[in-house]
Amino acid sequence: MTPRSQPPLIVKILSEQASTLLPKWTTLLKQNGILATGRIKETELATQCRTVLDLLATAITAAGLDVPAPPYQPLRDLLADISRSRAIQGFSPSETASFVFSLKPPLFEAIDAAKGTDDATALRAVQDVTRLIDALGLHTMEVFQKSREEVIVRQQREIAELSTPVVKLWEGVLALPLIGTLDSQRTQIVMENLLESIVAERAEIAIIDITGVPTVDTLTAQHLLKTVSAARLMGADCIISGIRPQIAQTMVHLGVELNVVSKATLADAFAVALRRVGRTVAPLKTVHRQQPVG
Fold it and tell me: Keyword Phosphoprotein: yes or no (predicted)?
């Protein structure tokens, strides 16, 4: 390999000064506050830094500055694991990036302190270190960003599932209270939860309560109709409750027709559902009067 593809000064520093680089790097990270939140222990941080230095020395000896090369794969995998862990632990992008970029100052200091190094060699070494650490830092941030997006998507799905519970009101009668905006993704979750509950409970009536839905536009109405149609295919009729006056006016203005029984309150919808399944609710005194005297 040419000196350019395998910088001898960097190799020498990493192999001979690792014991000096490690404490300087970890000290700088601690000064930046990485341990302040208590999300990572000092021993874990030291282990991560030591392993990075070992893998970096091995990779740069074998492949120079070619970060995408196979010898760098173990190092890239380690940095990816660290990035995913940081994303799950709630570290910020700057906190995660500083883990890699904080290695620059100790390396620059080691280059400056190297004996018998001419200015041209030192300058080239600084440029090589900058290019190398920047490449590793960008890799770290790409994985971190992707991991954070995955965490956010998973959390959104979990919140959506928690916010769309299916409640059994009576034998054969289910209620699905909706809160918040009803978009395409959430409609799918609503539909899945409702259909599974219809099958599990052998329900005849499903009440979809939209009291907690702030607005109902054409798109929201389409999502509701999809849910109603899916429930009907499973053998359950639907009743929509929670139609407030302002929502009714908006739907009339937009020309939206739900083509399904709707009621102003959940109580009214429940009364209709009970009649459909042949049940009624009456005061206890009335029931006692109707009982024959033995």
Answer: yes
